[in-house]
Amino acid sequence: MSEFLYIILKSIPGGFAAVGFAILFNVPKRTLLSIFSLGFMVIFIRNTAMQIFEVNIILSSLIASVVVGFSGVYISHWRKAPPLVFSIPAVIPAIPGIFLYRFMIGVITLSKGIDYDHETILYETMNNGLKAFFIVCGLAVGVIFPNLIFRKQSFKRRRNIIED
Amino acid sequence: MSVSTIKSPSSEVIQELGTVLLNIGIALMSSGASTSRTRMIVDRVATHYGMEADLFITHSVLTITVSDPVNELQFSRLKRTPPQGVNFTLVSDISRMTWRLKENNWTVAQVEEELKRLKALPHYPRIIVLFAVGFADACFCYFSGGNYSAMGVAMFATIAGLYIKQESFKLEFNQYLCVFFAALLATLLAGLFRSTFPEEGYSAAFASCVLFLIPGVPLINTVTDLFEGNLLNGLIRATHAMLIAFMIALGMTISILIYHF
Predict the structure, then answer these.
(1) Which residue among A23, A92, A105 places its CB closest to the CB of B124?
(2) Count of domains in chain A?
(3) Mutation site for B-interface testing, chosen from A7, A19, A25, A111 by largest number of B Cβ within 10 Å
(4) Which residues of B touch A84 (CB under 8 A)?
(5) What mean pLDDT is reported for chain A?
(6) Read out DSSP for B111-132?
(7) Residues contacting B170, CB < 8 A, separation 6+
(8) Which residues constitute the domain of residue A149?
(9) What is the CA radius of gyration of chain B?
(10) What's CA B46's distance to the chain center, in Å?
(11) Which of A135, B99, B207, B238 fits a disulfide with B222 by CB distance 3.0 to 4.6 angstroms?
């Protein structure tokens, strides 16, 4: 239980990070609170999946972003703004900055010369880079997933309007 | 048939509507909407006035052909899209406007006026943007395992970097160069703290102080466009996002080489 509380506390900065990016993207003021809770949710779901259910980080990021993508669609009806306004700032806290940084440092080290323990560095660099790449892909695909599903519906509605 | 014989009240309407539709499309594309959303909104407005609109959308140019099926009139125009920052309030407001214009049966002139008003709406005050983004990067630093002083350093470096990005954007530098300046300054400042106090654990601050530059909107719009069949636009957006990421890496690399991390 205390582990769960710890995850909740550690997820709160996710909400603030999401709001920071939301303000940078100039979202409407009425959406800020929803974006805070969605940003919190992304980190909370990812960390819960990773630490309690022991899912790997790529899959847990994908799960978190799919949940946020769907929540974004439902909140968008309630708050009267397009879903992307909610889901794009919300998933940004889940972008793996530290892996990207380690990948870059690895690449710089590899390009310096071969008098290091370059085999380990090569594996570590590849691992960090691929992890970062797949996490980012997972986040982006997860966010647009509801878009792909609901697309059919809104297209039908549009055709009805034309026929009317 | 000479041009004067085509002139009729309806041809003026189609011209006016075509220009408004083009402006709506440009406003949407330059403030961060995906290609399919832009097309959907423009279609929605055109359908309301009984016209058909066909769009050719690229990242820098928009082409529209509006056709009136009843009077067999056509209107075509091409307009450049200015590079602008992401503005989700405008995207959301235009979307709401299209529903309101359906409910209240607005005239084209009313739509034009409303669009002008929405474009002129103020953004968040600059100081709030600076501190909010600084705090966001401090949170990133927290996720990377930084302590409170590292979070402070990340926030300070981010605010300086964002300030330089805004200022260089105002001076109309190349947009990728603006990103480079921001990344360089932010990492130089964070790196200064890191090399002065090596045992404080400021590497997390150094790693996270450039994260405010990550091209989140182009990246997600890339995937949206690719999956919805707008392959060309998706690839263009992907290239744009890659260039931004490359410029961040370049700025950071120079700092790393200067400080020998």
Answers:
(1) A23
(2) 1
(3) A25
(4) 32-34, 37, 88, 91, 220, 224
(5) 84
(6) HHHHHHHHHT-----HHHHHHH
(7) none
(8) 2-163
(9) 23
(10) 24
(11) B238
